[in-house]
């Protein structure tokens, strides 16, 4: 679910009557409106001030219907329901985050890829953030990227991921990236036992909140690790 900036509208995915997963817009005192529809889960949604509805999609709504899965990042006009653009992906899109200026959307994938996409669509720019150094012993599992969040000033991007090490125990990690340079600012740190399930940044940028699958929330200092 995603809440609009004015607090009046929320978006949530739900299965419609024809079996497709649709994104519903909800407003107080008004019937729900269906915007778009994909043959997979709308696993993450976001709304811009300009009325663009974004959905990260992946995973089949029927386990045996793998040939019809839509792994994609899709943008619709929230008023007309018209599809503005889409970025097809080879793996599921698991999480989304809008930059504070709403010019960029960050998308995390189960492949472990972390993408920055122009709000005007992939034709206007797509870049992938890659770890620095020798990361050969780290391979993303089917969980991949679990959470993404921008700093309040939009200069940094934080990500959590669940990864397996070829030569050591499995674990999860927290990374920090420079948005301007598209590079890591420091080595990753272990976090989230047993696995991260969400990520957010406080409004003042002084704390990172990492949710874990065992029902806990870890509090991190962006400058302290």
Question: Please, could you describe this protein's structure?
Answer:
This protein is 0% helix and 54% strand. It has 225 residues and is mostly beta strands. The strands form five sheets. Strands 13, 14, 15, 16 and 17 form a five-stranded antiparallel β-sheet that branches. A four-stranded antiparallel β-sheet has the order 1-2-3-4, with no helix packed on it. Strands 5-6-7-8 form a four-stranded antiparallel β-sheet, with no helix packed on it. Mean pLDDT is 81; it is low at 136-142.
Chain-wise SSE layout:
Blueprint: E1 2-3, E2 10-15, E3 21-27, E4 30-38, E5 41-47, E6 52-58, E7 72-77, E8 83-88, E9 93-98, E10 104-109, E11 114-118, E12 126-129, E13 138-150, E14 156-165, E15 171-178, E16 183-184, E17 189-190, E18 196-201, E19 208-212, E20 217-220
Antiparallel strand pairs: 1-2, 2-3, 3-4, 5-6, 6-7, 7-8, 9-10, 10-11, 11-12, 13-14, 14-15, 15-16, 15-17, 18-19, 19-20
């Amino acid at each position: 679910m995603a809440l609009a900036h004015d607090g009046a509208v929320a978006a949530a995915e739900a299965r419609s009557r024809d079996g497709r997963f649709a994104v519903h817009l909800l407003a107080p005192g008004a019937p729900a409106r269906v915007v778009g529809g994909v043959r997979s889960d709308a696993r993450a949604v976001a709304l811009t001030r300009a009325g663009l509805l974004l959905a990260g999609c992946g995973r089949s709504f029927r386990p045996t219907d793998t040939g019809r899965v839509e792994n994609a990042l899709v943008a619709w006009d929230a008023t007309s329901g018209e599809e503005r653009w889409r970025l097809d992906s080879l793996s599921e899109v698991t999480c989304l985050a809008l930059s504070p200026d709403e010019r960029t959307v960050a998308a995390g994938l189960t492949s472990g890829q972390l993408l920055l996409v122009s709000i005007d669509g992939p034709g206007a720019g797509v870049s992938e953030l890659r770890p620095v150094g020798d990361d050969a012993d780290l391979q993303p599992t089917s969980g991949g990227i679990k959470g993404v969040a921008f700093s309040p000033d939009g200069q940094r991007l934080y990500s959590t991921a669940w990864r397996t090490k070829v030569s050591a125990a499995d674990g999860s990690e927290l990374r920090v990236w420079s948005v301007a340079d598209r590079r890591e600012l420091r080595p990753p740190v272990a976090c989230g036992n047993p696995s991260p399930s969400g990520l957010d940044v406080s409004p003042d940028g002084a704390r990172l909140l990492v949710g874990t699958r065992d029902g806990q929330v870890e509090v991190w200092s962006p400058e302290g690790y």
